[in-house]
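Fig. S4 source data, part A: sequence.
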Amino acid sequence: MATKTVRDPVHGDLDFTAEEIAVVDTRTFQRLRQIKQLGAAHLVYPGAVHTRFEHSLGACGVARRIIAGIRRNCGRQTVSADDERLICFYALVHDITHIPFGHTLEDERRVFPRHDRNRGRIEHFLTRTNLAPVLERLGLQDALLRLLLHHRLEEGGATFHYDIVAGTICADLLDYLERDCYFTGLSQRFDERIYKYFVVDSGALAINLVRNGMFRMDGLSEIVNLLRMRYVLSERVYYHPAKNAASAMLSKALELCLAAPRARLGERALYELGDEGLLRLMSAGPAPARHLVRCYLARRLYKKAYMVSRRSVRSTERFAPLHLDPAERQRVERLLARRLRVPFRSVIVYCPSAGMQLREANALFRLEPGGPPRMLEHNRELADLRKRQEGLWKFFVFLDPDYRDRLDDAGRICAELFGQPNEVLAPGELPPDEC
């Protein structure tokens, strides 16, 4: 029975049990209020200041709606009361291991391992914080550890507990799509009818595209619309060039702090911090890091000096070391800084992962009565969205605005160094395919 109602700007009223509120009220969970969902995106979209805290509450509410849909389609016994209790707690804590600017530091520049693949961090938050005794008292600590670490409760067992919260088309996705669009002001929506398509089949979450023995084209259209919405957010928000520049500045500032003698910062130090706390610590770091933080806070973003994209690069393999290997990235940054006669702090190489697949397109679908759930591997619309998502990859070299007079030189040197022409356009210049 619900004991507390929270008004959410995206979903309206969300109800939580006394047990769930006990988790929400821990200092560890409340820290999520201090971590923005979209990192540096608020420098491009000023309204994008929503946090991991409200996203976690929203994901819990969405998980309940998915469970309600499954029970309508498959019977109440498919997801038991104990299953629902565990799934809702999993939704609440699925982002508990996030550090400040987590995706920036873990995915974009690989300063630290990903939060959801870092066993030590997961165990720390669930067993060594003030969240631990609450989960232990509720009898959920071991099950949540297994879900966060291994995605299933037992070897070879059902995966729907994980799938509902953090699978492909899941509570995490459905909440952040709506929430990110709402707070960035993008006019994108999906139809709530999607909640009527969820089923559990062979122990896994699936999307039912069969009704009265016939394929449901309207269901497929809604899935395509959902994934198109995911693409639009990627194109306009997650990979916005100005947001990328701000993210690159933060990542380099942290790397400079970590490399400083007698560094006060390490991964563990970030477990207690929010965004502002990390910025304050970096502001007390070495002079180059302080410069980057000052520029970030003043929105004096580094300028694009060089860019290549999928438009001109068939394979991104040659750039992979600049994403995966910090030493190689710093070697190139030092080389460019020497040739441009600028400080090391003033050049940033930004190379995202080439693996920018639309993983949500790998959802399982029930396509025929009695048939096993499977992926839609040959659908033209999904294939097109996958290709467009991969096409968002861009490699940048950013330069301190104090040296804007050297942008042309930087672009020329980078083109020579990387063997690819510069795609940063001069004022008034059109892209090659528009000339």
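Fig. S4 source data, part B ends here. The CA atoms of residues 415 and 421 lie 5 Å apart.
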